[in-house]
Automatic annotation (TrEMBL):
Keyword Signal attributed: yes
Name under which the protein is recorded: Peptidase S1 domain-containing protein
PROSITE patterns: TAT (PS51318), TRYPSIN_DOM (PS50240)
Gene Ontology biological process: proteolysis
Pfam families listed in its UniProt record: Trypsin
Organism: Kitasatospora xanthocidica
InterPro entries xref list: CLIP_Serine_Protease, Peptidase_S1_PA, Peptidase_S1_PA_chymotrypsin, Peptidase_S1A, TAT_signal, Trypsin_dom
Domain of life: Bacteria
Domain Peptidase S1 stretches: 35-248
PANTHER family the record matches: GH08193P-RELATED, PTHR24260
Keyword Disulfide bond annotated: no
Length: 580
């Protein structure tokens, strides 16, 4: 059947709804219909999504192709289902829920195709425990057999509780679609808009097309005179690049830039990650709760965050609009703009603020550099801004000395020498060479094994160095640091572990106690880290494992738990800036 045939428009399963609305009110929910056929096999139903749009306004079917993404028909969401190409990208006009198995999630973003009746719908939270349906990559050919599962009507049910499936023959192939015909009494009915057309290849199911419109012969409510069981479905086999790009994009269509920063939210006990996107929007993501949230265009550089022990609020600090320091209270949703420095300077364009809780006062104190490379601290509850002078070639790193409660700041200082500044104690200390890379940012921890401050930093030749001024001094760990290292004190293991973006942009870890290096495999997508990616590691509050967050070459956010069940476990933040 050609695309120009006068098929009965499927209209996202809303023909009955439109008629009822015209009469006055929609009294019953008639989903966009289920395939007239037998009950779907478990392997099929596992990835088939029931989509409910509005207050039972429309019903459709879709296919889970990613933990965060459902592929379905754009006509389901269009104001006029006969004009799917008019659907705008962004948040759905009507509240929409997608249910896969026992898991329901809100649809929070639509990414439509302009050339066919197709849309990718992003879910607010991931569908875990289900292997998504694989998208086929080879062109369909006439004569192939397909099966179509759906949640719409059958020949004798208005609202099936479970998906039904029907067998179809593939008749015609065009550039963007296929014509199919039901066999054995199968038909695409109202409610099956967006239903997956699946073929078997070597015993493996793969998605070929998405149902768009049909004759609806044999479906409940269709006139008995209509016996045709043909349908038209939108091809997806040629859209691999587009689908991949959408999955790797943020909810706004932007990409993750810079590096993530993760803290544990005291209110939920969940790791909460903040990232900057390519439009300088700040995003947060909690995959165990509300998913991705756009916090606005406030992030000129990488964000950092801290849990304030005074009230358990998570506070985010960013180099914001006009390169002024801003903070965001994630609990209250309040943004605060800091007054300029007394010198009238603004932050360096790429400056990343770092904040600690001062044990002496309980105040949050932030350290940052300005355009003149001056190191500043600011305590908005106390002395305000304080100028340490021209000591900051790159971003400072404040650390609390557990012995006296002093804040000690480590910084790549004049002539690219490592400096530490203890304003209340020893003052400034400049470390002897090696010289650091001009853009190197140190990472300092109190090593649980020794109780000493130990700093890790890279030089201009990408060598990773450690320095313990109270122990062995400087030590060269080789050409292992493509970007800045991140060190974390693993108190449970009484050791320090250092994570680096290493050779060939693989994630590497150094056990500082044993001197053993571990190189981790590529992500399950086969991707290496982005060339400028800096990992960030936290202790997971539940497992107590060290979990590292990092961005890959596709700008996708990943986490890695080296102690995951069965070995190192990579988890992708789907759709992320895996904002979704």
């Amino acid at each position: 059947m050609s695309r120009k045939s006068q098929l009965r428009p499927r209209r996202a399963g809303v023909l009955a709804a439109v008629a009822a609305a015209a009469a006055g009110a929609l009294t019953t929910f008639a989903p966009a219909g289920a395939v007239s056929g037998g009950a779907a096999a478990d392997t099929t139903s596992a990835t088939t999504a029931r989509i409910v749009i509005g207050d039972s306004l429309r019903g459709c079917t879709g296919a889970l192709i990613d933990q965060y993404w459902v592929l379905t028909a754009a006509s389901c969401f269009a104001d006029d289902p006969a004009q799917p190409q008019a659907l705008a990208a962004g948040k759905p006009k009507w509240n929409t829920t997608a249910t896969v198995g026992a898991k329901s999630a809100q649809v929070v973003e639509l990414v439509p195709r302009a050339d066919r009746d197709l849309v990718m719908a992003r879910l607010a939270v991931p569908v875990d425990g289900v292997t998504p349906l694989e998208v086929g990559t080879s062109a369909p050919t006439a004569g192939q057999s397909l099966r179509v599962p759906g949640f719409g009507r059958t020949k004798d049910e208005w609202v099936p509780a479970k998906p039904h499936t029907g067998a179809f023959s593939l008749d015609t192939v065009s550039a963007t679609g296929v014509g199919i015909t039901g066999t054995g009494g199968a038909a695409v009915c109202k409610g099956d808009t967006g239903a997956p057309a699946i073929r078997e290849v070597n015993g493996k199911a793969e998605l070929v097309a998405v149902a768009s419109r049909s004759w609806q012969g044999g479906c409940l409510g269709t006139p008995a005179a209509e016996t045709r069981t043909g349908a038209y479905a939108t091809r997806v086999d040629d859209l691999g690049v587009w689908i991949t790009n959408v999955r790797h994009s943020t909810p706004s269509g932007t990409k993750v830039t810079g590096s993530p920063f993760t803290v544990v939210d005291p209110a939920t006990g969940h790791p909460l990650t903040f990232v900057q996107d390519s439009k300088n929007h700040l995003w947060s993501v909690d995959p165990q709760n509300e998913g991705w949230t756009d916090l606005g265009g406030y992030a000129a550089a990488r964000p950092t965050a801290i849990a304030n022990p005074a009230d358990n609020h998570v506070i985010v600090y960013v180099n914001g609009p006009d390169n002024k320091l801003w903070s965001y209270d994630r609990t209250t949703g309040k943004w605060t703009e800091f007054v300029p420095t007394p010198a009238g300077t603004v932050l360096a364009p790429d400056a990343v603020p770092r904040t600690v809780v001062d044990p002496a006062t309980g105040h949050l104190v932030t350290f940052v550099r300005d355009t003149a490379h001056h190191l500043w601290s600011v305590d908005p509850q106390g002395e305000g801004w304080y100028d340490f002078g021209g000591l900051a070639a790159t971003d400072p790193v404040p650390v609390i000395n557990p012995n006296d409660g002093h804040i000690v700041v480590y910084v790549n200082g004049p002539n690219n020498r490592l400096n530490s500044i203890d304003r209340r104690g020893a003052g400034r200390v400049e470390f002897v060479p090696p010289a650091l890379a001009p853009d190197a940012v140190p990472s300092t921890v109190v090593d649980p094994a020794t109780g000493h401050f130990t700093t890790f930093v890279r030089d201009a030749a990408n060598h990773l160095w450690s320095v313990d001024p109270y122990g062995p001094g400087w030590r060269d760990w080789g050409v292992m640091a493509a970007t800045d290292p991140v060190a974390i004190a693993d108190k449970a293991g009484n050791r320090t572990v250092v994570y680096v973006n290493g050779p060939n942009n693989r994630l590497n870890a150094l056990d500082f106690a044993t001197g053993k290096w571990t190189e981790f495999a590529l992500t399950p997508s086969g991707t290496a880290l982005a060339a400028d990616a800096v990992p960030q590691t936290v202790v997971d509050p539940v497992s107590k494992h060290l979990v590292t967050y990092v961005r890959d070459v596709n700008s996708t956010l990943w986490s890695l738990d080296p102690q995951g069940q069965g070995g190192p476990l990579w988890v992708r933040f789907h759709g992320g800036p895996s904002a979704p």
